[in-house]
Amino acid sequence: MELITFLIDFILHVDRYLEAFVQANGTWVYALLFLIIFVETGLVVMPFLPGDSLLFVVGAMCGVGLMDYGLSVALLLTAAVAGNQTNYTIGRFFGPKVFAWEDSKFFNRRAFDQAHAFYERYGGVTLIAARFMPFVRTFAPFVAGVAQMTRRKFTFFDITGGALWVGGIVTAGYFFGNIPWVKTHLDKIIWAMIFIPGALAIYGSWKASRAAHINAD
Description:
The structure is a single chain. By secondary structure, the protein is an all-alpha fold. The protein has one domain (2-216). The chain has helices spanning 2-12, 14-25, 28-42, 51-63, 69-98, 109-130, 136-146, 151-176, 180-184, 186-216. The mean pLDDT is 78.
């Protein structure tokens, strides 16, 4: 329970924690940020880390000279791409092993083939959009690996989505993160960054599921 309370407090007040870490440890903050972004995007079991809000706060700190903008973007982009590549590799390695039993109740060959076809056709858009959706971005590269999306196509959209995500949010924080109104309402902005994309993802999933049922009927 204490861990959950701490995580919620850390997510909502990541600006305070990060600033305190910079003041106490200096440039070690770059290693910490690399680790957080890599773990959030690279490990399916860590979807709750504050990626969006963290990037925004990093940009705000760059805006007041506490961190270097160019180094931060380059390092966090590398972490985001490497994390997705790791997640994809895990999915690609374990997917066929988990579903290796053609006649078992755990495997549906038709569903697997449909997933593969979907990711080959629409996976790029899915991967880019998922970057901006908490929880979804952690699972999207894993599913792409399980669905056997080609590495070349995955890498292209991995880098593209990562650049838009890291570059876009860090830059937004750089220009807007130190505006007094934004600083005052940062906790509300963080909640919005979590729930609005999440709600859109849930709605999209519900709509797709409904369309599938209608088509099936």
